[in-house]
Design a protein that fits this description.
Bound molecules: ligand PBG
Helix content: 40-55%
Largest sheet: 8 strands, parallel, barrel
Number of helices: 12
Strand order of the largest sheet: 1-4-5-6-7-8-9-10
Order of helices and strands: HHEEEHEHEHEHEHHEHEHHEH
Length: 337
C-alpha cells in the first residue's frame, strides 16, 4: 500500500501535498497529534529551613528557594493555574550522617508537606521527594557503610521511615529518587503495613547519573563530592531502563519516571511503549538553565523553546512532565484557548 502510494506520488508530483494541512494555524491545530494541557504538568518546589525571604537560585533564574510562607503561596498559585501536582524538596539547616532531618516530623520537608496539604487539600497532588541527599552531610542519597560506599539495604530502612513520616505529614504520593535496589517494595510494604495503602508511589525508575542536575545541586545546597554513578544509571544504557521500570512496577510503583527528559527521549519512548502504569518525565534543572541562559542572551525565543521542549517530552510518550516552567506554561496554554 505504501509502495503504491509512493509510486502514485512519483507519477503525479503535484497531487500529494503534505503541506496542505500546515497552511493555517487552525489547520495545524486541527491535525496536532500531541497536545499540552495544564493537567500534564507537575511543578517541583524548593523550601528552605530558617529562611526569612524567598531566595533566588543563581543557576536557575526565575526559580526560588521558598520560605514556608512563600511556599504556601506558590502551591496556591499552582492550583489556580490548573496544573496537577507539586513535588516538594526540602533544604534543611543541619545535616548529619543518617539524614535525621528527613524523618523528623518537624523537619523542613515534612512541615512543608503539611503546609501544602493544608493550603490546597486535595485540589493538587502533593508529592514529596523521598531521598536522603538533601539531609545527609556527605550528600549521598543513602547512608554510608564504614568503607564509605553507599549501603543499599541500610538506606532502605531510612527510606521506609521517611515514607511513613511523609504520609503522616499529608503527602498524597511519595517520590523515591535514590535509585536503591528494592526501594519501591520496601516503601510499599511499609506504607501498607501502617495502614497507608492510600499513599501512592511515583518511582524515579530510570534515573540517570547526569550533568544536567548541576543547577539543582545549587538549589538544595548539595554537599556531595564525587558523583552518584554507583546507584544512578549510566547514560550509555537504554535497555537497562526497561529492567528498572519492570522491577518498579512489579514492586508496586503507581507511576514510573524517566529522568532527565530531553537527553533521554529514546528511553522515554521505550518506557512509554511497554509501561502498564502512567509515565512521568522530569525536565531537570540543567535543561531549564540552558534555555533560560540562551534566552537571556537573546539567542533563542524563550516561550517557543519552552513550549517545544515540553511538547517533545509529551510526544516521546510522557503522560506527565515535571518542569520548573509548569505554572508559566499552564498560563500560556490557557491564554491560547
Ligand atoms: C535527588 C534528586 C536530584 C534531582 C531530583 N531529585 C538530584 C540528584 O540526583 O543529584 C535533580 C532534579 C533536577 O536537576 O532538576 N534527591
Amino acid at each position: 500500500h505504501a509502495a503504491a502510494l509512493a509510486a502514485g506520488a512519483a507519477a503525479h508530483p503535484g497531487r500529494i501535498r503534505p503541506r496542505r494541512i500546515r497552511a493555517t494555524a487552525a489547520m495545524r491545530r486541527s491535525v496536532a497529534e500531541t497536545r499540552l494541557h495544564p493537567a500534564d504538568l507537575i511543578l517541583p518546589l524548593f523550601v528552605k529551613e530558617g529562611l526569612s525571604e524567598p531566595a533566588p537560585i543563581g543557576s536557575m533564574p526565575g526559580v526560588l528557594q521558598h520560605t514556608r510562607d512563600s511556599l504556601k503561596q506558590a502551591v496556591a498559585e499552582a492550583a489556580a493555574a490548573g496544573i496537577s501536582a507539586v513535588n516538594l524538596f526540602g533544604v534543611p539547616e543541619v545535616r548529619d550522617a543518617t539524614g535525621s532531618g528527613a524523618t523528623d516530623p518537624d523537619g523542613i520537608l515534612n512541615r512543608a508537606i503539611a503546609d501544602a496539604r493544608a493550603e490546597v487539600g486535595d485540589a493538587l497532588v502533593i508529592q514529596a521527594d523521598l531521598c536522603l541527599d538533601e539531609f545527609t552531610d556527605h550528600g549521598h542519597c543513602g547512608v554510608l557503610a564504614p568503607d564509605g560506599t553507599v549501603d543499599n539495604d541500610a538506606s532502605l530502612v531510612r527510606y521506609a521511615e521517611m515514607a511513613l513520616v511523609q504520609a503522616e505529614s499529608g503527602a498524597h504520593m511519595v517520590a523515591p529518587s535514590g535509585m536503591m535496589d528494592g526501594q519501591i517494595a520496601v516503601i510499599r510494604d511499609t506504607l501498607d503495613t501502617a495502614g497507608r495503602s492510600d499513599v501512592g508511589i511515583l518511582a524515579y525508575s530510570a534515573k540517570f547519573a547526569s550533568a544536567f542536575y548541576g543547577p539543582f545541586r545549587d538549589a538544595v545546597e548539595s554537599t556531595l563530592e564525587g558523583d552518584r554513578r554507583t546507584y544512578q544509571m549510566d547514560a550509555a544504557n537504554r535497555r537497562e531502563a526497561l529492567r528498572e521500570v519492570e522491577l518498579d512496577i512489579a514492586e508496586g510503583a503507581d507511576v514510573v519516571m524517566v529522568k532527565p527528559a530531553g537527553p533521554y527521549l529514546d528511553v522515554l519512548a521505550d518506557v512509554a511503549a511497554v509501561s502498564t502504569v502512567p509515565v512521568a518525565a522530569y525536565q531537570v534543572s540543567g535543561e531549564y538553565a540552558m534555555v533560560e541562559a540562551a534566552a537571556a542572551n537573546g539567542w533563542i525565543d524563550r516561550r517557543r523553546a519552552i513550549t517545544e521542549s515540553v511538547l517533545g517530552i509529551r510526544r516521546a510518550g510522557a503522560d506527565q512532565v515535571l518542569t520548573y516552567w509548569a505554572v508559566e506554561l499552564a498560563h500560556w496554554l490557557r491564554e491560547e484557548w
